[in-house]
Amino acid sequence: MTDASSSHSPEWFAEWFNHPLYLELYSHRDSSEAFTCVETILDAIQAEETGEMGFAVLDIACGAGRHAMEFARRGYHVTANDLSPYLLECTARRAGEEQLELACSRQDMRTLALDRKFDLVVQLFSSFGYFTDPDDDQKVLENASHLLKKEGWYVLDLIHPAYLRAHLQPHTEKRIGSLHVDEHRHIEKDLVIKDITISSDNETLKFRESVRLFEPGTIRKMLAKAGFEIKRMLGDYHGTPFDPEQSPRMLLICRKGQE
């Protein structure tokens, strides 16, 4: 496992993504959803034409490894990167239980550096737009481009801002086992912010998520600056074509140009 500490911490994601309750809260994001998403990606890039021998995949922000493991199950050479030691431990443990070959790397996506180039880089489940400085988001795109082979593929999964604004739920409550989860959401300029309070019999914990929203035109310019061309834009993990009014996601299938 490659391990690199971050000079940017502490930030909200460094704390929240390293807490065991994160997986409790997002337990509904399961392997079935990951299977569908990976199927859609491989179909979009026509991976069967590339051949699997030596095809290398990097998951820039792998979380607990749902997507990275799905790629590994299909025989691809997978590197799973994340900043959270806890989530990487979960990924390594689960991969070991299934006897999957999967390399783990712990690095900040802004300064990610690896000693190989990849055929496919993925950044899924709204794992982009975390940083206070928007220039840091551009650095992530530049890193993804640098880590790709010529004409490699980059798949970026974003929230669709127009859909979110139309369907935002300002307040929800739910129970997960013995936990009571209270969530408040609001949009502040180009950020969607979620304040989370998790209560049990013993304690109450508070966390915040803050993710930048990107309009289609804005992210297209950012990707072009990093050397990418959007080949397809899908509206969900099932591969439905993007609809400017109805699609909940922007799944951007991008290709790196020749250097």
From TrEMBL:
PANTHER family in alphabetical order: TRANS-ACONITATE 2-METHYLTRANSFERASE-RELATED (PTHR43861)
Transmembrane segments: none
GO molecular function, one term: methyltransferase activity
Name by which UniProt lists this protein: Class I SAM-dependent methyltransferase
InterPro entries: Methyltransf_25, SAM-dependent_MTases_sf
Keywords assigned: Methyltransferase, Transferase
Residue span, Methyltransferase domain: 57-152
GO biological process, one term: methylation
Protein's organism: Prosthecochloris aestuarii
CDD domains: AdoMet_MTases
Source taxonomy: Bacteria, Pseudomonadati, Chlorobiota, Chlorobiia, Chlorobiales
